[in-house]
Design a protein that fits this description.
Blueprint lengths: L25 H25 L3 E6 L2 E6 H36 L11 H12 L1
């Protein structure tokens, strides 16, 4: 193993190789991401070039003429921002729940008036 390997942990065993024997590294994953980004960029340029016709857009008090591609990309970007905001909120909620579970339940100083009654009635229902 050379000092330039991507795998300093020594995880280059058979578990990190696929069925054909190729080793997956962070560098190979980065190249795949670059290729995907280039293909996406070419498709985006083609989309913009083919949709240059102007359309009238009215949004509340603002109105004007913009290319179809700009309108569609703006709508897609707005949708992505909404999805991102919901996703960030959900991840924050899950992390908060995990943090609360690790701390354990808060000690309660008093028991509610009906909590003891529910325990007794559930025992009676089982019999």
């Amino acid at each position: 193993m050379s000092k330039f390997d991507d795998d300093p942990e020594g995880a280059g065993d058979s578990s990190s190789r696929d069925h054909e024997g190729f080793r997956h590294t962070r560098t190979s994953a980065a190249w795949v991401a670059v290729v995907v980004a280039v293909i996406f960029g070419i498709a985006l340029i083609d989309f913009i070039a083919q949709n240059t016709r102007h359309v009238r857009i009215e949004f509340f008090w603002a109105s004007g003429y913009i290319p179809v591609a700009v309108a569609l990309l703006g709508a897609a970007l707005a949708g992505a921002v909404v999805v991102l905001a919901i996703g960030v909120g959900r991840v924050a909620q899950l992390r908060l729940n995990i943090r609360r579970q690790r701390r354990g339940p808060k000690p309660s100083s008093h028991v509610g008036p009906n909590e003891d009654d529910r325990d007794a009635s559930s025992v009676d229902d089982e019999n």
